[in-house]
């Protein structure tokens, strides 16, 4: 059985790690290079680095910062934010990223998923989907959750898989930063309808939430930020308890 992955997420704005609630009210959470090194040492399976203002501000992901972070790591490293071309990805991979995450650019031009998958391999392409439950329907949002669309989460996820994405990073905007648990019902449906790994994001508040998203949500990986940044949950403690609950993790 494949082990379940624990993935800290560094949301970067102006070169610093930040964390908010429901995608707003950001507060400083530390230096991304120092945090990356600490997480690699503490047993994180992977790391995700999202330049959260890159798309909004129409600029590219901070390639130099990616290089600095990558030098601290011996675990897979995914980078996202402002990526819209094969050239963008080429630069990031050369600077040490193992995978890239695309979001708004994939919705605006879905062919980008095909292009990246064909050029770099599907294992390299993570499509991030931010969605909100509106009147019982999960609707995709863009530009850091600021721009709503009519796209249905599940329809878009299926298209993403067909176009060659290797993984989906699903963030529930309703759950993000609330520490009330992941969107396990939606995650379970995604896992049932798709054949590629699903990363759960948005809502981690305690160890039970991680256990639930693996057992109920059928997620392949769980991503969190503030509970790790502010040391509310230690990765070693999390993995020990998950293992005791029968969930396969790398210790």
Structural description of this entry:
By secondary structure, the chain is α/β, with parallel strands linked by helices. The protein has one domain (5-244): Aldolase class I (TIM Barrel, Alpha-Beta Barrel), CATH 3.20.20. 34% of the residues lie in helices and 28% in strands. The protein contains ten helices and twelve strands. It has helices at residues 32-42, 63-70, 86-94, 104-108, 111-120, 153-162, 184-193, 207-215, 226-229, 235-244; strands spanning 5-13, 16-21, 24-30, 47-51, 77-80, 99-102, 125-134, 137-142, 147-152, 167-172, 198-201, 221-224. Strands 1-4-5-6-7-10-11-12 form an eight-stranded parallel β-barrel, surrounded by six helices. α1 (32-42) runs parallel beside α2 (63-70). It is globular, with a radius of gyration of 16 Å.
Brief descriptors of the model:
8-stranded parallel beta barrel; 12 strands; alpha/beta; globular; 10 helices; TIM Barrel; 251 residues
Task: Write a short abstract of this structure.
The protein is of the alpha/beta class and 251 residues long.
- At CATH level 3, the topology is TIM Barrel
Rg from C-alpha positions?
A: 16 Å
Total helical elements: 10
Outline type: globular
- How much strand content do the residues show? 25-35%
Kindly report the name of the CATH homologous superfamily. Answer: Aldolase class I
Low-pLDDT stretches are 20-24
Largest sheet: 8 strands, parallel, barrel
Sequence of secondary-structure elements? EEEHEHEHEHHEEEHEHEHEHH
Q: First CA to last CA: what distance? A: 15 Å
Q: Report mean pLDDT, rounded to a whole number.
A: 89
Spatial order of the strands in the main sheet?
1-4-5-6-7-10-11-12
């Amino acid at each position: 059985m494949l082990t379940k992955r624990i993935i800290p997420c560094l949301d970067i704005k102006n070169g610093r790690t930040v964390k908010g609630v429901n995608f707003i009210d950001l507060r400083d959470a530390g230096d991304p290079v120092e945090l990356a090194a600490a997480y690699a040492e503490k047993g994180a399976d992977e790391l995700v680095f999202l330049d959260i203002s890159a798309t909004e501000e129409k600029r590219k992901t901070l390639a130099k910062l990616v290089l600095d972070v990558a030098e601290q790591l011996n675990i897979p490293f995914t980078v996202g934010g402002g990526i819209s071309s094969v050239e963008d990805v080429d630069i990031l991979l050369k600077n040490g990223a193992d995978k890239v995450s695309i979001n708004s650019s994939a919705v605006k031009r879905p062919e980008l998923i095909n292009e990246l998958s064909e050029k770099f391999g599907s294992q390299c392409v993570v499509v991030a989907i931010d969605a909100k439950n509106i009147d019982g329907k999960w609707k995709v949002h863009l530009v850091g959750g600021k721009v709503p669309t009519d796209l249905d989460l599940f329809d878009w996820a299926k298209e993403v898989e067909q176009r060659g994405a290797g993984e989906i990073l699903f963030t529930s905007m309703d759950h993000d930063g609330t520490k009330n648990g992941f969107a396990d019902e939606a995650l379970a449906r995604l896992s049932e309808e798709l054949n590629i790994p699903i990363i759960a994001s948005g809502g981690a508040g305690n160890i039970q939430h991680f256990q639930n998203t693996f057992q109920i949500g059928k997620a392949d990986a769980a991503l969190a930020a503030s509970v790790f940044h502010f040391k509310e949950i230690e990765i070693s403690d999390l993995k020990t308890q998950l293992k005791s609950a029968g969930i396969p993790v790398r210790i």
